[in-house]
Amino acid sequence: QEKLEQSGGGSVQAGGSLRLSCVASGYRASDSCMAWFRQSPGKHREGIVFISGNGKIDVDDSVKGRFTVSRASAENTAYLQMNDLKPEDTAMYYCAAQSWSWVCPPDWTRYSIWGQGTRVTVSS
């Protein structure tokens, strides 16, 4: 069974940092797309960082220069490093994957595997 297990997150003051982890099981994550989405109350789910199976990384303008993604292939894990956090980054964060494709679509409805979500709260 293909699964994603998230960890990390929590509460931090503005300007602080957090790292989210996403461990994949049941498939080889390094060969396929892994994406990070977030959703705030009353807002649509938005894609913020995408890493394709060929290593190409796309970062949304809202987090560019502050958030980075990396993969540890041996651990089948992806990481989202979030620096210089702002109150508007407060949201539920989800990792998502397409085990059968190395391309990352921007539309969250195209993803078949989802982590359980982790909350990030940034206070001013």
Tag the structure with descriptive keywords.
four-stranded antiparallel β-sheet, mainly beta, 50% strand, 11 strands, globular
Largest sheet composition = 7 strands, mixed
The beta-strand count equals 11
Overall geometry comes to globular
Could you estimate the helical fraction of the residues in percent?
Answer: under 10%
The end-to-end distance, rounded to whole angstroms, is 41 Å
Determine the strand fraction and express it as a percent band: over 45%
Mean pLDDT: 94
Count of separate DSSP helical elements: 0
Order of helices and strands: EEEEEEEEEEE
Layout of secondary structure:
Layout: E1 3-8, E2 10-13, E3 18-25, E4 33-39, E5 46-51, E6 57-59, E7 67-72, E8 77-82, E9 91-98, E10 113-114, E11 118-123
Parallel strand pairs: 2-11
Antiparallel strand pairs: 1-3, 3-8, 4-5, 4-9, 5-6, 7-8, 9-10, 9-11
Q: How would you portray this structure in words?
A:
With 124 residues, the chain is mainly beta. It is 0% helix and 50% strand. It has no helices and 11 strands. A hairpin with a 4-residue loop joins β7 (67-72) and β8 (77-82). The model has no long low-confidence stretch (mean pLDDT 94).
Brief summary of the model shown:
0% of the residues lie in helices and 50% in strands.
